[in-house]
């Protein structure tokens, strides 16, 4: 049986072979290559490709802007591209793509992404397959396809050299994997593993002519000039079967040809032989399945390839999903079809394609359950149903479940399949008004009863919906899940994870007891563990956390979940730059504004990631502001942020540290200066750390030193820390001239150095002479000031002593005068007392004139006067006063 081959990607319009294209096509046709997908690469060759498609029935034209040529595009390039598709209904899209290789890295990658995304969206809009070029950018490609796809019409990953692990992810989005002579440059073990990860219904073959010349180990090579290259020990026919039987490889291959030798489209036979040998199948088997895959892929409305009779009977679509890695299983699946589904379509069956997977289903049974399909069949012939349902919002597995339900099989619902089933049932209008016990009500009841009441089941359901997120995002199902999770988090925030321990934040023990897991849950399931929110894709996690912030979920728990999300999605090597960048930017927007809920060290780690991943300026600025508010909690290692420049002299991002310091001062409102002192010490330590960098330039170091001085403003700190940093810098840069060393030392204020530092500086041979003289002069001034101060203090002491003596003398004189005045007052009082006594005596004597005095008896009054020390007359009293005065 003659093999038919389909060259899924080539460039027959290339200037290197353009003048020989008729002969190349004729030769390839003679060898069994019946179709050529000719890909344009720039505006300059689109018209050539169009004319080639019109001239050769076997050529399928493809139009696209290759990443290597985007800098040459005109302002109106996209409108021109769309016009070519309007006038060429048989055309597919290609070659487009992303390139970070040796050639592509010279072209702005953001520009590549912008151009590629527009063409990818156009291919989806036109429902045409698109051929994609990808070099060292598979992660970026996957993220763009996830955000734009899925692609029911198919995406061709041409000359695929990616890893086996990425194959399933691309396949879910509708990718086909095309292999060329470049595959021979891959290690055999790696190539075999990757090939066996590709489903048999996704394999394509190509030449990429005039590039990707095979190495010739698997047969003779057709040359563009008309000759044939025969490797040593080989005849003109390739023989992969004999190689599998153990025949030795020829010692000489295509490496003997000049490196610039162009490839011939007939050399697809060499690719066929090599791929078949790695898969351990015959060339005939590989030719049939790859040809059938290509015909199915290019069978869109208006295409030249849509010829139903060309499909081999061995690849008749079956309602069975095929193995992704085992070709024996594929062969068995092709033969073992369910009894209710015939191998060849019957008159009552229609053929549908879901993400490239063919299904044959009974149109009567399907329309009995689906109001949408019933309406389409009523207005259109069955043959058009596949085209009308080309955008079915489901993956093949979900559609298979729906088809089984329509054919009367028991439907097994689970948390993982309920959301995709609801989405597809809604799309197909499988409602109770159309048929009793229909799918939509069954799935909704399961969703409400089994999924929404449970935190874990809700997260599992959301996670399973990631593959069809674009279809279910606006269906209301996601909103219901998010609302359920939010209310559960409000009741028990610990479902988000434990808050991050921060040594600067003292948490009350009472606060730790506020939120506890449900007691009933703990009683009946002691090992219960909540599902982690961080397993959700960013498209679901972002709106969920945003709503939690708005509903007042405690910020420390939200912050803990966000930090876990960053760790999970940025530490893994499986996620590429674009997705990681999106994660970091989203986390920065979602972080609660409260100070201290995220440790400063973690914020610095996120900032480093934001810089490394080239996140937006708003994202980086947001992290810098958050860090600035709590910079006094940072350590010097946190400030060592690598610069993204290419020069060694900017090893650390000095400007970033400067901005963070500015934010600290702008937001510092405490009256306690301890925070300012901590930051001043931190900057000095940072200066000492970077001073040892041998490549640190003088102006950069001086700038850092000035920043350190600025951090010390408002504090009574000395300049010893800056002096130590200068000493380290001069020690590591001994080649500096005297003038350069003076430039380094100009920021140092000698007057703020301690005596110990001055003493060390005076003996430091690394310092410039001028600076040493300044230090000595300052030391002399300090000594003079010290002596002057001591003399002044001594003089002040003597002066104080003299003043004190004078004050004592004055005080003593004041005491004598006071005694004299008091004595005078006492004398006056005594005189008054004597006067009163005299009056009393006279009154007594007058009252006793008629009485006789007793003989020998002393008068009582006289006795009283004697005891009082008073004389018997006024004269005597005056004499007593005079005597006292005289005595004094």
TrEMBL record:
Membrane-spanning intervals of the chain: none
Start and end residues of each NPH3 domain: 527-782
Database matches in Pfam families: BTB, NPH3, TatD_DNase
BTB domain segment(s): 348-415
Listed Basic and acidic residues bias regions: 242-252
Example of a GO biological process term: protein ubiquitination
PANTHER family attached to this UniProt entry: OS04G0577500 PROTEIN, OSJNBA0020J04.13 PROTEIN
Similarity section: Belongs to the NPH3 family.
Protein name in the entry: BTB/POZ domain-containing protein
